Amino acid sequence: MDLLLIALLFFLVAIGAGFLGSLAGLGGGVILVPILVIGFHVDFVLAVGASAISVLATSTAAGATYVHDHLTDLRIGMFLEIATVPGALIGATITIYLAKLGLYPVLFVTLGAVLLSTIPGSFLRHRTEVPEGVVPDRRSRTLGLGGSYHDRHLDREVPYMAASTRPALGVMFGAGLVAGMFGIGSGVLKVLALDGALRLPMKVSTATSNFMIGVTAAAGAGVLLAAGYMNPVIAAPVALGTTVGSLAGSRILPGLRNEVVRYVFLVLMAVLAVELIARGLGYA
Amino acid sequence: MSDERPLPEYGFDRLPEPLPSRAYATMAIVLRAGLFLSVALFALGLVLFFVERPHETIADLAASQRFLRFLDPSVLVAGLAQGDPTAILSLGMFTLVATPMARVLTGMFYFHEHREKAMTRLTLTVLLLLLVGSLLLGPYLAHP
Fold first, then answer.
1. Measured between CB atoms, does B113 come within 8 Å of chain A?
2. B95 at A interface, C-beta within 8 A
3. What are phi and psi of A157, to 5 degrees?
4. What does the alpha-carbon distance between residue A139 and residue B8 come to, in Å, rounded to a whole number?
5. Cα(B108)–Cα(A78) distance, rounded to whole angstroms?
6. H or E stretch covering A115
7. Sign of the torsion formed by the C-alpha atoms of A7, A8, A9 and A15
8. Lowest mean pLDDT: which of A8-12, A113-117, A230-234, A253-257?
9. What are phi and psi of A5, to 5 degrees?
10. All structural domains of chain B with their residue ranges
11. Nearest Cβ partner of A231 from B50, B67, B126?
12. H-type helices in chain B, by residue range?
């Protein structure tokens, strides 16, 4: 098949993944690797590289908007990157080593398991707009991990401080590891740390998560790129498509963001996860 | 004599002072500029690539190692000077990966300017880790 046709298909599929992922609030990167591997027989590590590049592009676009609106907490974001970046470096290294050893079934099954484990988390998310009774820990008080923002919906200035920084660092390391291994944003894990451990207001949490996804993806992508596991003829159309799709999802049709779209996306994720696990175990 | 501010105990009764607005504005500009440049390079590179090689197959691509050579900066510059589409695409990827790194560098500059030594050190550590990954770990893993 001509490469031009394949690149066009990559572009169109990435638009769909970015669009659906944006409407579902999970990002398109999470389904790109299985689609590229299962649907187009792209090498697993090259697919991870292409996905990391697309996550970089979409998070950079969203991150710029959130930073511009002052919703991102720069201190908290930079503080947590101290955990996500080493995680991503180690994750990318594990993937490259497993591929060199020919242990692709391990990568298939692990990614399938990661996708499946994401599903309950995204159903059970009961996010609190502004948590109450937050007690900042010592590190948070010393580093100044807090601030305030003007909430237009509540029409007031909302103060916040980060609560438990130690468990948040642990979860963030795990998020970075998964992001580096599979070129995904790991937004669900990041939100778990920001909402659950640090107990930040939802808007700050979402903006800061997006801010960090870019640096985490850059850590994994930098390793894959320098190790020669990136092909721009695959990565470029995927990145362009995902960016177009996610921008369309977030700006053109915000009214469509509802539970039905989320369920459709999660079902698609579950099907891809089962297919990956079946392939990894030699059943497909 | 240290210019570090005494470490205050922040809390809800004493919220930390935000970084200046220009820190946010500069980071937004860095991110948007990096994204715009890389998207433009991707689009231009892909168009030129398929104009030059309309019938290339995925097997040709998989068999070639043409992108690896652009990891050498001098080869990349020479490729760009010749208008090589693969060099343009590679530069797009380098630009996109470097964009968050530039954002971290910008953050470090403003934390330093704000005399927040602990945050400056943390940000410098993140930047060094990113550079180690791209300049040492990646090339090391490239070997068979």
1. no
2. no
3. -80, 130
4. 11
5. 9
6. helix A104-123
7. positive
8. A253-257
9. -65, -40
10. 21-142
11. B67
12. 21-52, 58-63, 73-81, 85-113, 117-132, 138-142
For residue A202, the surrounding DSSP H or E stretch is: helix A202-226
The one-letter amino acid code at A231 reads N
| Residues 16-75 (B) with a CB less than 8 A from some CB of A | 16-19, 21, 23-25, 27-28, 31-32, 34-35, 38-39, 42-43, 45-46, 49-50, 53-58, 60-62, 65, 67-68, 71
Asked if residue A44 belongs to a domain, the reply is yes
Residue A78 maps to a domain: no
User: For residue A157, what are the β-bridge partners?
Assistant: A150
Q: Which residue type occupies A153? A: H
Structural domain including A36 reads 3-71+85-125+178-186+207-280
Question: Which H helix or E strand runs over A244?
Answer: helix A232-247
What ranges in A132-199 are assigned the alpha helix state H?
138-143, 165-182, 187-191
A32/A10 Cα distance (integer angstroms): 10
Question: What is the rounded CA–CA span in Å between residue B70 and residue A105?
Answer: 31
Note whether A183 and A55 are within 8 A (CB).
yes
Q: Is position A133 within any domain?
A: no
Tell how far CA A6 is from the center of its chain: 25
Q: How many domains does chain A have?
A: 1
Q: What is the pTM of this model?
A: 0.91
Task: Collect all residues of chain B within an 8 Å Cβ-Cβ radius of residue A2.
Answer: 54-57
Q: Is residue A158 part of a domain?
A: no
Element (H, E) at A158: strand A156-161
Among the listed residues A80, A81, A77, A75, the one whose alpha carbon sits nearest the alpha carbon of residue A63: A77
B24-62: pLDDT as tens digits: 999 999 999 999 999 999 999 999 998 988 777 776 666
What's the angle, vertex CA A200, arms to CA A196 and CA A140, rounded to 5?
95
Predicted confidence pLDDT, tens digits, chain B (144 residues):
445 555 567 778 788 888 888 999 999 999 999 999 999 999 999 999 989 887 777 766 665 566 677 788 899 999 999 999 989 999 999 999 999 999 999 999 999 998 889 999 999 999 999 999 999 999 899 866
